[in-house]
User: What shape does this take?
Amino acid sequence: MESPRIRMVLVAPSHPGNIGAAARAMKNMALDDLVLVNPKQFPDAEATARASAADDLLSAARVVPTLAQALEGCGFVAATTSRDRDQYFRVMDVRDAAARIVAESRRAPAAVVFGAERTGLTNEELETAHALIRIPASSLYPSLNLSMAVQLVSYELFRARSGALPELPADPPAAPLASPAEMERLYAHLAQVLEEIEFRDRTQSGTHLMGRIRRFLQRAELDHNEVSILRGILTAVQSRRRPAGGPR
Assistant: This one.
């Protein structure tokens, strides 16, 4: 089986044993790209012991300080969650998400993001994703151990790659998705223009506008050219604004 361009990203894992078990789960399912964001304790003897025969994958794992760095070079990004979120996130069943991730990985590296054991991913971290992955579990206790979540997602990815799951109904668009870094630059540019034209959040807390904008643009799955178009529009808005006190 061809090595996939699928990156597994663990954000702030606190237990080294879970890191090792995640590496083993990945090797079981022929995945080899592991990135750790600000792990509490790594490298560690317990991680190596739990990795078992996957110590080579563990030793090759990259450690970075931020999620943005972990996602560099990626196109499609999916994030795991067990908590209820508002309706503005796209949520996919793990099996459907696996088929989509495999399809997307054929045109650009794809990533799956997992949160810390106790807290999961923050809303800000989730906003970097195009979709959220929901693993079906008991409503009485839906939270999975980190390494178990990695194992289940890795298994579904393996099945999708081996042809056990149907292909997506349509081929992905030809142009690659905009990278997370390009999207962040778009959001920063948009926030700047909104401030310049004094278009501000009218909600009571005054903190929801950019979050809502980020979520619907992530759902839109913009490619590089579309991001360039939007930023060109924003630049044109900035250049046409009337200077303070000047003529209309």
Q: What stands out?
A: The chain has a mean pLDDT of 88. Strands lie at 6-11, 33-37, 62-64, 77-80, 91-93, 110-114, 131-134. The chain has two domains: 6-161, 180-240.
